[in-house]
Amino acid sequence: MTQLGPGRPRLAPRRRQGQTPRAEILDAAAELFTTHGYGSTSTRAIAEAVGIRQASLYHHFGAKDDILDALLGETIAAAAELAERLGRRPEPATVRLYTLARFDIGQLCEARWNIGALYFLPELHGERFTRFRSRRDALRTSYEKLAAQVVAGAGEAIEARTLPFRLVETVINIRSDAGGVPEETRRAIAEAVLRVLGVGDDLAGIREAAEILARELRV
Amino acid sequence: MTQLGPGRPRLAPRRRQGQTPRAEILDAAAELFTTHGYGSTSTRAIAEAVGIRQASLYHHFGAKDDILDALLGETIAAAAELAERLGRRPEPATVRLYTLARFDIGQLCEARWNIGALYFLPELHGERFTRFRSRRDALRTSYEKLAAQVVAGAGEAIEARTLPFRLVETVINIRSDAGGVPEETRRAIAEAVLRVLGVGDDLAGIREAAEILARELRV
Fold first, then answer.
1. In terms of CA atoms, which chain B residue is nearest residue A179?
2. A167·B169 Cβ contact <8 A
3. Which residues from A are below 8 Å from B when comparing CB atoms?
4. Which residue ranges are recorded for the region named Disordered (chains A, B) (predicted)?
5. Which of A153, B18, B82, B209 is 20 to 30 A from residue B111's alpha carbon, by CA?
């Protein structure tokens, strides 16, 4: 048996993705929640999947909903940070919105497990997830603010400003049905984010400017 | 105690939506599945919510997944039927696609429970739901065929033909977050279905023609 922290024996060698016990627990939980269901997964099953004792799991997470909360937070953290940085940039709103959408689509598609499918759990309406809900609301608001600026430029489709955020999250639906999202579809969704706001001209130019911006921001 | 079918005593008077015991079971199950979770809901809890004995429930449904299958089928049946009728109509593809989207958005929004949120259950990947998955695939294909005709007309955005179906289903995501979908948003989504395909001109004319077609088809 290998050692996991001071005096905590592991029941099996590490076989999970992740550099730390915490990351391994999150990876195992994400797999079980998305393939067996949240309600049907016990902390005991998660500990077993990692190869640690249940008591060791409780050293990292107080309860199953703490694990879910950490996983949900991961689905929005990087996009929220990018949205904040984009708010301070001088590029046109079209370019910034495309950059945000393209990044967010990419990270939702490439995450090892389709954690966004857990947004639909009834548990998320409870008080325990108030903080996650308000963080996700903040990200949605960032999308809507950028979209409103784009619409002001395009002069129509103001009601559609809520749709870019929704379009980006359709990759969760596509992954859930099809397992993966081809590159052409990712690009089509990012372009659709602008099209629903009435932007149809020079999508190639916007895409190019967004690629330059993304490289500069290292995302 | 009132009577439910030949010799089956009810434990409580009917208090569920639905004209028949079967409809009452479906209504109760939809509520429990969407508010407590599918995994956490037993057939016993469903029977109790209806006010019938568990044995009576089994008279209508062999198992919990049969109830889920019936509920899922309800989310696509009417749209699939309309899609078939629209396939035989002479109106332009833009008008037919808008008509389908507007109808489907409406029925997904107005269903008493947001059953589409159950599309994300891991259980749906099992063999039990092969038939439902292929029925939903057929509906998606109907959308894609209409969208491909629209794109052929607009001459661009061919990859986007997968998006109208996905856009319509975002009402499931919006309901899940916000509880309801305002009329302006429903209309914005239906218009976005055309915008993502590169159709930006004369949306008002298409909308009007679609309203006439919907009245003619009585949907």
1. B125
2. no
3. 34-40, 117-123, 157, 159-160, 162-163, 166-167, 169-170, 172-174, 176-177, 184-185, 187-189, 191-192, 195-196, 198, 200
4. 1-20
5. B209
Mutate which of B170, B181, B193 to disrupt the A interface (most A C-beta within 10 Å)?
B170
Cα diameter, chain B:
65
Angle at A133 between CA A127 and CA A137, to 5 degrees: 150
Report domain extents, chain B: 1-62, 74-217
**pLDDT tens for residues A136-171?**
999 999 999 999 999 976 656 678 999 999 999 999
Fold of B74-217: Tetracycline Repressor; domain 2 (1.10.357)
User: What's the pLDDT tens digit per position in A3-24?
Assistant: 444 444 455 555 677 789 999 9
Whether A172 and A181 have beta carbons less than 8 Å apart is answered as no
